[in-house]
Design goal:
Layout lengths: L1 E2 L6 E2 L3 E2 L7 E2 L2 H11 L19 H11 L3 H6 L1 H7 L5 H16 L8 H18 L2 H17 L3 H17 L3 H17 L3 H18 L5 H21 L3 H18 L2 H17 L3 H14 L10 H20 L1
Helix pairs in contact: 5-6, 6-7, 7-8, 8-9, 9-10, 9-11, 10-11, 11-12, 12-13, 13-14, 13-15, 14-15
Length: 326
């Protein structure tokens, strides 16, 4: 199940941001509440509608009309024609190539979707913006490249662009942006489940964790800190740095207890039990699992979907029985 980008509740029926198609929400209220954070990265997915000047090549005129209609397949079919008439590093070229990149991203798989081709085009545009000295254009490309490469299963390649964006955000003291992108990439790297990716994730997550204390509003602080700590614990586990994993996950348990978040407490206790088990401390693992089951008792987790509560409780019971069998 995916989790709501605002409240963290998991569901199979989340609504997506109509612009970027990446952010997911369980309600309109959550989407509105998250907008102050999400608007800083919601650049991917926007058609650039500035029309080519009169007298421009006919191919560019036709391509612009297709872009207005969001005819992704038609735009992809015109790729070679459009590239043949583009000249120089200018607004028309960057706008057109960004729209073509978006078409490769959005077109159905059966009609030519190619996320890596989209990323290749955006990297080309980013280089043009750098030459032109257009920082906002670069920021838009970095946002899109990060989302694309993670979606394409290449989170390690997204690290380059995430680092650029976080460095820019550090200079401008945009702590929301640092935390959000550090967590986004860190979670993707940890999900890839390799020691190389876990090692790569740690500095991004540590920067996100530090930024979370300076974010706007307590909710943003709590959510980013919660996600950064959880991902850091998993990264340290993958690297078998169990002492650091235990320290980080214990912080997660304390944070969830302070928030009185039953589902969060249960998740953190489960992760800590796994760490204790890997360390051979089976009694501590069993204690955490028993506490987790108490937290998951009916009525103790009002914000947690019932089906998920039952599933997690059943899993915890199975793990506890397995430990006792040892």
């Amino acid at each position: 199940n995916m989790s709501c980008f605002e409240c963290g509740n998991a569901s199979t029926e989340l609504k997506q941001c109509a612009t970027c198609k990446e952010a997911k929400y369980c309600s309109s209220d959550c989407q509105r509440a998250h907008w102050k954070v999400h608007k800083k990265m919601c650049n991917a997915g926007r058609i650039h509608t500035h029309a080519p000047a009169s007298g421009s090549p006919a191919a560019l005129q036709r391509f612009h009309l297709l872009a207005q209609k969001e005819d992704w397949a038609g735009m992809v079919q015109m790729a070679d024609q459009v590239r043949a008439v583009l000249k120089g590093k200018n607004e028309v070229t960057t706008m057109t190539l960004q729209n073509l990149a978006l078409a490769y991203w959005r077109v159905p798989a059966t009609q030519g979707r190619d996320l890596l081709k989209s990323a290749e085009l955006l990297e080309e545009v980013e280089g043009m913006f750098e030459v032109l000295g257009q920082v906002q254009g670069q920021l838009s490309c970095w946002n899109s490249l990060i989302s694309l490469l993670v979606k394409a299963g290449r989170p390690s390649e997204a690290a380059k662009w995430t680092e650029k964006l976080m460095d820019y955000a550090t200079i401008s003291e945009d702590h929301d942006l640092i935390g959000m992108h550090g967590v986004f990439l860190g979670e993707a790297l940890v999900s890839a489940q390799s020691t190389d990716n876990a090692q790569l994730a740690i500095p991004f997550l540590e920067r996100a964790l530090a930024a979370s204390t300076k974010c706007e509003g307590p909710q943003a602080d709590n959510d980013l800190r919660m996600k950064a700590l959880a991902a850091l614990g998993c990264a340290y586990m993958d690297l078998e740095q169990f002492d650091k994993a235990l320290e980080t996950t214990t912080l997660s348990v304390s944070d969830m207890e302070a928030r009185n978040d039953g589902g969060g407490i249960a998740g953190a206790l489960r992760r800590r039990a796994m760490i204790y088990s890997r360390m051979g401390q089976f009694e501590n693992a069993a204690t955490d699992l028993q506490t987790m089951l108490q937290v998951l008792a009916p009525g103790r987790c009002p914000g947690m979907p019932e089906a998920m509560r039952l599933e997690v409780a059943a899993e915890g019971q199975t793990l506890l029985q397995r430990l006792r069998g040892n």
